[in-house]
Amino acid sequence: MKKVFLWWLIAGSKGGENRARIIIELKTRPYNANKLAERLSLDYKTIRHHIDVLDENNIVESTGEKYGALYFLSNEMEDVYDTFLDIWEEFKKSDE
User: Fold this and answer.
1) Dihedral sign computed on CA atoms, order 28, 60, 75, 93
2) Lower CB density within 10 Å: C or N end of the chain?
3) Prediction pTM value
4) What one-character DSSP code corresponds to residue 2?
């Protein structure tokens, strides 16, 4: 996964902050969309949208059926997680 792609996904597109928050939550353990919505204080439909974007871009993987599916970080995302954290820190600094 290229660094420039992660920059686009987090800092260069609308909703990047919420996608980053989802990635951070999923680093700790798998969650379903309903639990992510609860933990991040976001609407379920918002979570579903961002999960779909992350899934389409091989950032997350899922197991189970749509509603009850558990989401976790893909192996590819796990491999570049430190790079993601660097980008996240830069993003937060630029937002101040």
Assistant:
1) negative
2) C
3) 0.90
4) -
